[in-house]
Amino acid sequence: MTFVAKCFCGCGEKVRGGGRRGANKMGHKTNDHNARLRRAHELLASLAAGGDAANDRQRLIARLESLLAIGDHYESFWAHLAHGNFMPSTAAFLEERREWYEWTKQVTVATRVALSEAARAENAGLSGDGPPSRIAALVAAGDQIDGELSQAPVDDFYIAILLSCRRGAYDVLELFCDGIEDPSTEVDNAPVLAFVASLADPEASERALRNVTWTMAARILTLTWPERRETILGIARAALPLSDEEYEDVWRLAAVTAEELQPIADDDPREDEDVKAGRWFTFCCDSLRLAIEAATGVRPTEVEVLALWTAPLWGECVAQGMDTLRAHLDEIDPVNGDTSL
Question: How many domains does the chain have?
């Protein structure tokens, strides 16, 4: 199948041709790296002045700013190539690409150090008005998963889908935590509160983000290819491995999603939309229980996730995460609408 892609710079131009599409892919990755640098910079800049590590933080901020300046150069370089404006000599291109790879490694190290410092400083009471340590943990978890996916032995098309699922999953978790922590809600639900609190821990945050990434994948892959979901989910599993038990949970979510696509029997007195809403609610309850278990190690009962409005809130967050996912998927534009893969 032939693909064209939208230019990473946001100009709206369709990028065609192997060389230009390759440059466009590098541009997308450069944008992602620059976004991580900016998030890390904002986190460090939000820390209150003072403390034993203040000088170290200033040096780290300067390092991030230096890497951002280099990143701006690479955004321009890949944009020129993606637009077909010029092509350097082979030797010059290979040297530039080698230096770009080295820059990406430096970005990975610098952002992880920065996020760790931000989390450490906040836990020590040094944070100002910046985001909580949960954000630092989730961003670091996202970088970890993105790094795994970038090395996955599957086609780039599937990797792009899973990267979009990961981005949607981040939004799901952040939006849900914001809703639970809203003072006006007065949530008194021990499993849910423990879940939200656990996301400040880097390991729990990584497990939760990985779990919700799979929740998003189960849904979007089934909605897109309902008849081929077993094959497609198998390919996704090769890119983002999980245990047999975890895969069974993902398969159940995919099965519930597939049921939403099925019309009700003619002799069923229920309205079709009511049936779909019920299946969607089942998906929300089940996926919330799995996310809580991934982070805390304890799967709550159905009654516990149904308490008050936690499951409906989770459903709203998943729906918004799906919007984020689809926005990122717009970067891939199959010619003639062919999604048969």
Answer: 2
Range of the domain at 61: 1-131
Q: Which long-range contacts (CB under 8 A, 24 or more apart) does 107-113 make?
A: 107/33, 107/36, 107/37, 107/67, 107/71, 108/143, 108/147, 110/37, 110/40, 110/60, 110/63, 110/64, 110/67, 111/36, 111/37, 111/39, 111/40, 111/64, 111/139, 111/143, 112/140, 112/143, 113/60
Which pLDDT score is estimated for 336? 31
Q: DSSP string covering 261-305, please?
A: TSPPPTT--S-HHHHHHHHHHHHHHHHHHHHHHHHHS-PPPHHHH
Beta strand segments in 67-143, E: none
- What distance, in Å, lies between the first and last C-alpha atoms of the chain? 7
Is residue 212 within 8 A of residue 167, CB to CB? The reply is no
Domain check: are 176 and 120 in the same one? no
Q: Whole-model pTM above 0.90? A: no
In a domain, 139, yes or no: no
* 94 and 234 assigned to the same domain: no
Extract the residue ranges of the chain whose pLDDT is less than 70: 1-5, 17-19, 47-56, 85-88, 108-109, 112-113, 115-132, 183-186, 263-273, 305-309, 330-341
The answer to whether residue 14 is domain-embedded is yes
